[in-house]
């Protein structure tokens, strides 16, 4: 039978095409299914009465696809199991596919044989180019939830099946795969499958939302729910923001809600809602309460709930941004301080630097531990510059600054054609780019568990396999890692691999917080001189700087000095040049007589270090204005909220 020459048939042409090619069928589909029948013949050259030649991947190919989708499988597996529990007794098989129509997971009813014989198994290909119109393949093409019922399948051999399918999208709006529920020999009209389809859609949205929350667990996230009517799971919009208030990720409901406007990723939140991110944080008390707002485009009434991640990296840079800070390839010696300059006149740091110099070029991985702002990356660059690898590349990857879905390709790279949407020329990963030089893994504690396993294997075997590569690439790198987290505690909670810790931490160097350094006065003068030659501090101003607890460490000190230099007359920095809040925060704190400002007890019980005390005093001085307090310390509002959570500090009106 010769295919129709129609490329983009209209409804009348499509009806004629169906009559010509499917005269024996008792159904006359329209829309998506009719278009799929046309594609199956015209584009794919399939015969609707041909044999159902199932295409099943080999065991090795199945393992490869499952490894490439390990994170997706782990998250979606709970949804597959949940849906199966509700439909298996009714005779439904539940399948999870990738974006190419290959099944990655399946749950079959008790009588398995009829389903396995029909190809409802892991490793089967269900894209339209192989089997024509079917639930998974056609849903992937149309990117809509649908039911393909019995004779609506292109191949007559598949007319026993009724399949209800929903596509699954990742937090960047890209198609990730499908969730499918299929039954065999189910009598009754297509309309009887409507409830099954709704269940499939519900679980697909649950998978998407779980994927979103996992990917952006270290970001500020918003949940937007319509309030004009009873809302369901499918209408809840989830947005992830960087610390500048720009959207870096969203669930499918958010993309659908804003598809009529400009691109969602990268938009400022105040172009969607009538408040800036700092105002949202302040009005919600850091996520302690939800807000009722109207959207700017349709003025719809919505409930907005914020989530500040617990234990997230306390950094002033956007933690949800795709581009890792300082992730560029640098083949020249970086313009940064050397090890002696960084150690200053602090005896402890000087001893650490002496040990480091003995460890250089011995092939030992180095782990830098310290609070945010203590200069871990500067030390990593200095170590690189002092080594024999100084002429090689210094490549940095911030494990907390890249969405988890992208870390694997960033770290290991991929070859041409590895996956849908990949760069046609492939991409070298950070490991390969660092060959012959130094790889700096910042915030290593935020590396996903499955990538910890892969990294451990790479470090042990000293070779890397890019995604889609057939041959390994020998690896010759100095690995330097850094973290502000307690990795030993993470090992106890099974969130960090113990064997990887010992592989990365052959040499562990702890960088002291600024408040712990014995050379603060020298450091202040040195940084001031570097900022503006000739500037000097009056004694009272120096005393105030020395008394500050510096929760933001050297980063906060630099911001304060730059502020002071800008206000100084003729280079003379007095008390009037310092942030007024800084001088108040350095005063001795009175004992609390009431639990105001501290959740669950007195000051002595709840705040045991100077950082917490300084935060509490600054918040009181600013009458609990978080924006003003964060500006005082030179840190972001999200970081300040995290530190408040760390020390158990809550606003007085938020106490129960």
From TrEMBL:
Domain Sigma-54 factor interaction stretches: 342-566
Q: Could you tell me one molecular function GO term of this UniProt entry?
A: ATP binding
Positions of the region Disordered? 323-342
Q: Does the keyword Transcription regulation apply?
A: yes
Q: Which InterPro entries match?
A: AAA+_ATPase, AAA_lid_NorR, GAF, GAF-like_dom_sf, Homeodomain-like_sf, HTH_Fis, P-loop_NTPase, Sigma_54_int
Swiss-Prot/TrEMBL keywords: ATP-binding, DNA-binding, Nucleotide-binding, Transcription, Transcription regulation
Q: Which GO terms describe its biological process?
A: regulation of DNA-templated transcription
Against PROSITE patterns, the record matches this protein to: SIGMA54_INTERACT_1, SIGMA54_INTERACT_2, SIGMA54_INTERACT_3, SIGMA54_INTERACT_4
Q: Which CDD domains match?
A: AAA
Q: What Pfam families has UniProt attached to this entry?
A: AAA_lid_14 (PF25601), GAF (PF01590), HTH_8 (PF02954), Sigma54_activat (PF00158)
Name used for this protein in its record:
Transcriptional regulator of acetoin/glycerol metabolism
